[in-house]
Amino acid sequence: MHPLALLPFLLLLIPTNARRVQHPNLPHTALMRTRAAEVRQTFEQAFEDYRLYAWGHDELAPLTMRGYDTRNGWGATIVDSMSTMLVMGLDELFLSTLPHLEATNFTSPPKPGTVSVFETIIRYVGGLVSAYELSGKKHQVLIDQAATLAHKLAHAWTEGREENAPRNMPYTWMNFVTNQPETGVVGLATAGTNILEFAKLSKYSGNATFFDLAKRSMDAVLRTTQFRPGLFGEAYSPLLEIVVNDKVSFGPNSDSFYEYLIKYAHMTGNADPVYMDTWLTGVNSAMENMLFKSTVGDWLWLSDWSNRTGYSYQFSHLACYLPGNWLLGARLAHNSTIYRTALSLAESCAHTYSSTPLGIGPESWHYVPVGVEYAAQPYQGSRAAEIYGERGYWTSDASYILRPEVVESMFYAWRITGNPIWQERVWAAFEAVRKHCKAPAGFASLITVETDSPVRKDESESFFYAELMKYFYLTFSDPSVIHLDKYTITTEAHPLLLETEQFDFGPEPAWVVTEVEGDQRVEEGRVDGCGGSGGTGMSQLMMLLDFYVPALERCSATS
Ligand SMILES: *[C@@H]1O[C@H](CO)[C@@H](O)[C@H](O)[C@H]1NC(C)=O
Ligand SMILES: *[C@@H]1O[C@H](CO)[C@@H](O)[C@H](O)[C@H]1NC(C)=O
Ligand SMILES: *[C@@H]1O[C@H](CO)[C@@H](O)[C@H](O)[C@H]1NC(C)=O
Ligand SMILES: *[C@@H]1O[C@H](CO)[C@@H](O)[C@H](O)[C@H]1NC(C)=O
């Protein structure tokens, strides 16, 4: 008997609505254990260097071996590293950071200057609430300190209002001495990247205001002009609640707004469908209007777009978070069109790593889109033209600042498809970073990836510890660690427990796997008699078949 013949019986044992996102049958091999241990050791050494040379400062300067501060001096690297320590099982190391936290006064920045609402929420508040959950909800200091920060940040919503009645959107910068924000415009990402962190903080602090502020801001954005359905401009006036810059982008200033629409829906089990609906609408618009293939190599890329100035035909390392986010949303929405497109985009992002001399991708790049008459071309005869001819993109900013997004999407691709090729790509990236970014102390940014001999920069962002090392680790860890059906992961890679594992994201899909010359692809289509609702019967069987085919090869392109 073919083993799959048993599946209908096994189905009876599997609860409806379980296992929406992560592939249920991921292995945990000896090789994975070895690699995870190497990543953990690398993280430990890097953090030890930080402790030795920069303790209490925001960042470690990896070449001059001293501390420096770009996040107001509260020890950003410590706070950003805590959830990574807990994920890696480094509980003692985590405990060793608590005295620093207890001694930190988050009401006044050690370094004079304004405080970034966005960076402070994603790095500090997110790091604190995630560490609180991951350490068993027993270190109250983590919530108290997060609340101290958030009470100060709340003033960014109330400037100039009588009796502090909040307006809906925050300003970008806060002065903690005067409790006044710097007035001006606010970016889409700042207005829309706080609902995960503030929802958790309200839950654990018992003060509903934080969540209320975050939700007001998200909802205010949803009421503004959409330049295409579900796509929003880059900057807003918090005073007037109108969009002031019509650039639509998935890169800097905008990215995590879209990211949080679907992650918030995931965390709450789609309690209010407006967020996921908006995400789906935006993805649909992006698929119709912002996706292009390069004239060389057929690589799929997204483009920024403005109603006034048109398309940029550029893509960026930051925007490479998107394939992973689309894979997550495609699983929740049961949409194989989004799923396949996301995998193609993940291939493209991975290609920016495998195609450079160092094996690490650049900050941003250009391409020439198929079927567009007057798109900019690289100068004929230039090095850029040569590179475009080889790769299907040419680099516009060659620096690498230890960003995680490409590895992040490869991590999602591994956990969702189970295709081990993604692990190999992540491992190649880890080895490249270890080889080229390792510095006298910790790890350093690179001035350019377009060279055979890397030139390092005396900078090391805290997201190296929070994000890059965590995604490296989770690609090789036991797949039950930060299982994607138990956690959502913030934009700074701080895991947060889902509020419910009972999802109601609509009927089960009817995806069919068909074999195409040894390569399995997902085909969309309904199977006769598989009424989707409730997720029972034939459609669920089809989904399981889809899942249980070994070493699923769903990549639509291989490089
Ligand atoms: C924290 O700093 C503020 C502002 O300088 C000060 O008023 C407060 O007393 C400090 N708190 C502690 C516990 O030192
Ligand atoms: C909740 O937090 C807000 C914002 O800082 C504050 O104004 C309010 O007094 C707090 N409420 C309680 C009950 O502590
Ligand atoms: C899947 O998403 C695509 C792109 O947004 C959309 O056109 C299509 O209708 C969706 N399919 C289903 C079954 O919802
Ligand atoms: C987009 O541009 C067109 C043409 O300039 C203009 O008529 C339209 O109002 C713009 N749309 C939005 C939403 O601003």
UniProtKB/TrEMBL annotation:
Pathway: Protein modification; protein glycosylation. One of its GO terms (biological process) is ERAD pathway. The active site is at 119 (proton donor), 255, 363 (proton donor), 405. The keyword Secreted does not apply. Residues 1-18 form the signal peptide. GO terms for cellular component: endoplasmic reticulum; membrane. InterPro entries: 6hp_glycosidase-like_sf, Glyco_hydro_47, Glycosyl_Hydrolase_47, Seven-hairpin_glycosidases. Its cofactor is Ca(2+). Ca(2+) binds at residue 491. Its EC number is 3.2.1.-. GO terms for molecular function: calcium ion binding; mannosyl-oligosaccharide 1,2-alpha-mannosidase activity. Belongs to the glycosyl hydrolase 47 family. PANTHER family: MANNOSYL-OLIGOSACCHARIDE ALPHA-1,2-MANNOSIDASE 1B (PTHR11742:SF101), MANNOSYL-OLIGOSACCHARIDE ALPHA-1,2-MANNOSIDASE-RELATED (PTHR11742). This is alpha-1,2-Mannosidase.
